[in-house]
Amino acid sequence: MNPVVSAPVEWVKTIGDLRLPALADHRLQDLMDRNNEGLLSAAERAELETLVEMSQRLSLIRAEALRLLGRSPQ
């Protein structure tokens, strides 16, 4: 099995431009601020953990796409 998958450059560029949606990013920032103040409920803490994990995974995927394109994150 060949571990290399061919993909059009435009697809890789699209992946390199991915970001959390603005609403999710705003919610993440709000939860992080409230977490720093010790104001999160258990449900909000779980939501924060989920959003952080999504953000981290997205960052890793973007980083790989940018590496393939020979670009740096902006």
In short:
The chain has 74 residues and is mostly helical. It has helices at 9-16, 22-36, 42-69. The protein is built from three helices and no strands.
- Name the structural class: mainly alpha
Structure summary, number of beta strands: 0
Overall shape: it is elongated
Distance between the termini: 35 Å
Main sheet makeup = none
Poorly predicted runs of 5 or more residues = none
Q: How much helical structure, as a percent, in the residues? A: 55-70%
N-to-C SSE string, H for helix and E for strand: HHH
Number of DSSP helical runs: 3
Describe the structure.
The chain has helices spanning about 10-15, 20-35, 40-70. With about 70 residues, it is mainly alpha-helical. The protein has one domain. α1 (about 10-15) runs antiparallel to α3 and α2 packs across α3 (about 40-70). The model has no long low-confidence stretch (mean pLDDT about 90).
Summarize this structure as a short list of keywords or feature phrases.
74 residues, mainly alpha, 3 helices
Secondary structure elements and their pairing?
Layout: H1 9-16, H2 22-36, H3 42-69
Helix pairs in contact: 1-3, 2-3
